[in-house]
Amino acid sequence: MEDLDNLKATELTLGLPGTDAPEKPSPASTTGANKRANEECCLPVAKKQVVGWPPLRSYRMNSIRIRKMDAEDNTGIYVKVGMDGAPYLRKVDLRVYTGYKELMEALNDMFKCFSLGGAEGHEESGYAITYEDKDGDWMLVGDVPWEMFISSCKRMRIMKGSEARGLSSST
Amino acid sequence: MTYFPEEVVEHIVDFLGSHRDRNAVSTVCKAWYQVERLSRRNVFVGNCYAIRPERVMARFPWMKSLGVKGKPHFADFNLVPYDWGGFAQPWIEAAARGCPGLEELRLKRMVVTDDDLELLARSFPSFKSLVLVSCEGFSTDGLAAIATYCRGLRELDLQENEVEDHGRQWLSCFPDSCTSLVSLNFACLKGEINTNALERLVARCPDLRSLKLNRAISVESLNRILARAPHLVDLGTGSMMVNHHTEAYHRLINAFLGCKSLRSLSGFWDASSCCLQAVYPVCVNLTALNLSYAPAIQGDDLIKLICLCFKLQKLWVLDCIGDKGLAAVASTCKDLQELRVFPSDIYGAGTTAVTEEGLVAISSGCSKLNSLLYFCYQMTNTALVTVAKNCPHFTRFRLCILDPGKPDPVTDQPLDEGFGAIVRSCKNLRRLSLSGLLTDKVFLYIGMHAEHLEMLSIAFAGDSDKGMVYVLNGCKNLRKLEIRDCPFGDDALLKDVTKYETMRSLWMSSCDVTLGGCRALAAKMPSLNVEIINESDEADEFQENLSDLHKVEKLYVYRTVARGRTDAPDFVWIL
């Protein structure tokens, strides 16, 4: 036992001295008869391997799986973003954002000289955020569901108010 | 008693609705048995293998409504092999011969073929209502037969079935003379639908109150439907994918404004947060809301929606609602009775999931809560004790901690005390599902306090046979016990074999029971079917060649008056 203590004391880690990761009790094995393993330190078992767990009907499991696969598609979607009057363009990875709000905030940061009132607020701010879609048309950002947008957006442009007003819906 | 004229007995018995009461009446004496059986209109068979269909038809010849359940509950989680059984055919055939006056049929977890549906459609001239829940084996061709031949059909309700898509024509098979539909639910269908036919059908059925569309129905079609059926009470919205600034979106807003009777909403498959405003006008009257298929609706937009639904009694959501969202539910939905929180990610991310805090918030805000299904990554004893104190009215309590065998993260203790508090406080608890790290103690508590418990689901819990014995000894009203991955073996199984005659069924998988134990049970109790489901390589072995020590992977025991069954596949051994 003493040897083990010394070993631990001289072990090289990146953490602060005295901090140890809490030992996790292992979830039960898949083979049935099992002891509660909280007296041992075990590696967490990958949850996926347990048949019929979590107790969810197939329909729900499938829709979770599909969404996970979509999310794991890790090829970033980099699109150019230009703004009227800016001397150079920027590039953003649309995969990084979960929705329009985050994207707007990021663009706001990047192009600090415009203030944004949300996807619909373009009329007040004088700027509109538009994008070129697969068909080559220039569309207003925010109309379609997010997933649809990121799969069809080729590049973005922040337009000045006078041009942009033509794009807004007449309500 | 013997002087009592039958007409009087019949009149009295007519007031009895529940199956339990009627079953009790029928055992009093032969005369009462006769009166009861001829006057029973609703028959419920909880296990299709407990009795042969012909006997049911012979006993209740004037039956109007029949409900039958097939596979055990764990079949929902793929623990029962595909062709295990639960066939609807013998039931429909027997009913066609013995009870042609049948009007309603409800099947759950059964295998139903297109031929079965066609036979059904042709055999019962007064047929009014078909409800299929978690069934499989049929296609849209079978639905076409129902639509074609069931004159006067009022209800076609398909809930979470596996239906093969053979084309969209089935809906066109409803004849122009069909104007009687009250409820139509095809939300589980994966394929396209003939929307013209659907819209015309809706237009000619003035009594339609419940309509649940599948994902293939576009918003444009939904708009047209809502325009023709503004009296809907219950709506499944279909896809709900709509662009914010379009004509379709504005028409959707108007459509919902016109739906003054809407009380229940579901669907929302592709709905995004930005189009939720369309449903705001109906929120104030909603009593039921199911957003559990809508992962895109979350965060502040979801909370904004919830805060309008102050009459909500039933809410199904995904765990991306978060603890913050649940707090909003707690402060808004004071009439909430049923809550289900499903996981949106099972791969351990857990960042947007709910925790014990959300559940505690719900319990303090929603004192009428009586039914809970809650998936989370962690739970504490303290939280469960608080929940038990705040909500003593639980009749159904199902907690699923996604990490099997996980202890209380704060104290590192098992959750025995927490669940113990639940069973002590909730005197009317009928259904309970356990999870997390649990020792034999929790079963001692359950045996001691859960007097009215009827269904118990256990996974990855317990230390020894004692756990199972506590439950079997203590829970006098236990009907269904399902166990997986627990260290319960032959001693527990055989401790009190007569108990199983008082129950509908017992399921044990990945436990410690052996073939010898099962053989002993079968020998002692001829009134039970003891089924071994053996899918491993050894399934090729004959049962006789395997020793008593062989561990049984899946055991299903149920009481029956029909010894054995003729439709069992090779891998099912009935001892």
Please render the helix and strand layout as text:
The complex is a heterodimer of chains A (171) and B (575).
Chain A: H1 2-10, H2 58-72, E1 78-83, E2 90-93, H3 100-110, H4 122-125, E3 127-132, E4 138-140, H5 146-152, E5 155-160, H6 161-164
Parallel strand pairs in A: 1-5
Antiparallel strand pairs in A: 1-2, 3-4, 3-5
Chain B: H1 6-13, H2 19-26, H3 30-39, E1 42-45, H4 53-59, E2 65-69, H5 89-98, E3 104-108, H6 114-123, E4 129-133, E5 136-139, H7 140-149, E6 155-159, E7 162-164, E8 183-185, H8 195-204, E9 210-213, H9 219-228, E10 234-237, H10 247-257, E11 264-266, H11 280-283, E12 288-290, H12 299-306, E13 314-318, H13 322-332, E14 338-342, H14 356-365, E15 371-376, H15 381-390, E16 396-401, H16 416-425, E17 431-433, H17 440-449, E18 455-459, H18 465-474, E19 480-484, H19 490-494, E20 505-509, H20 515-524, E21 528-533, E22 554-559, E23 572-574
Parallel strand pairs in B: 1-2, 2-3, 3-4, 4-6, 5-7, 6-8, 8-9, 9-10, 10-11, 11-12, 12-13, 13-14, 14-15, 15-16, 16-17, 17-18, 18-19, 19-20
Antiparallel strand pairs in B: 20-22, 21-22, 21-23
Helix pairs in contact in B: 1-3, 2-3, 4-5, 5-6, 6-7, 8-9, 9-10, 12-13, 13-14, 14-15, 15-16, 16-17, 17-18
Family (chain A): Belongs to the Aux/IAA family.
Main location (chain A): nucleus
Protein name (chain A): Auxin-responsive protein
